[in-house]
Automatic annotation (TrEMBL):
Matches recorded under SUPFAM superfamilies: 6-phosphogluconate dehydrogenase C-terminal domain-like, NAD(P)-binding Rossmann-fold domains
Biological role stated in the UniProt entry: Catalyzes the reduction of 1-pyrroline-5-carboxylate (PCA) to L-proline.
Predominant cellular place of this UniProt entry's protein: cytoplasm
Annotated protein name in UniProt: Pyrroline-5-carboxylate reductase
Any one GO molecular-function label of the UniProt entry: pyrroline-5-carboxylate reductase activity
Species this chain originates from: Microbacterium alkaliflavum
KW Transferase (keyword) present: no
Keyword terms, alphabetized: Amino-acid biosynthesis, Cytoplasm, NADP, Oxidoreductase, Proline biosynthesis
Gene: proC
Amino acid sequence: MPDTLPPIAILGAGSMGGAILQGLVRSGLAAGGITATNRTAAKAEDLDGLSGVNSIALEQQPTGNADAAAAADIVLVGVKPAMVPDLLREIAPSLRPGTVVVSLAAGVTIATFEAILGAGIPVLRSMPNTPALVGKAVTGLAAGSAATAADVAVVRRLFETVGTVVEVPEDQIDALSTISGSGPAYVYLLIEELTEAAVGKGFTEQQARLMAEQTFIGAAALLEASGEEPAELRRRVTSPKGTTERAIGVLQGAHLAGLFAEATDAALARAKELAQGT
């Protein structure tokens, strides 16, 4: 696999597209350059000055999306899902055969992309999560019918600049979104609740936040650094007949496994509703 990436266009470099752009710049792998588009000059100016980035404001250059797509080997589509079909129709005549198009749009199927873009354009669907902003994303990646192993490999390399990649069939993308896509919110909720418990035991809000947040950050760092199973690290903290064992017993008694299954099932049901337009 080449050490560097070919020319890339990011159409709609908003929060997620912008996070990936920052990761690419940090990595130094985007030797072919990056062209990013945004609707307004103000948003485009935010990206000006980044190394190897050509930032286009569509209000100043109305053909910017098509221009960017024409010059790219990989095109990331980062606009809102409802805007995707119109954008694809706009850029389709400008794409060269073999240009890889990658969706960042939740709920838009590969079939929608392929129907508009036509034969000869490999399509992949991605589902990154918000820790992409700090290079710690989990990105789900599903290949369309025309995507080769080489196409998947180069797109995987692109997303690895902002974290880790899990390759799945498209019919698992929505399920993946209930785990890694929504997952940061579950972690933040647990931190909120542990903070409240600390406040209830007489700590100040500042002390409570510091203890809860840094405990989660430290535990995650230890998990990553040690390579151990979470269950093993939990056992090491849980002395027999000790205080932690008593607390864990209460949490397990609340049937957390069933609760997380129920919560992620609810998220999956909502994803299906959204796909049907309800």
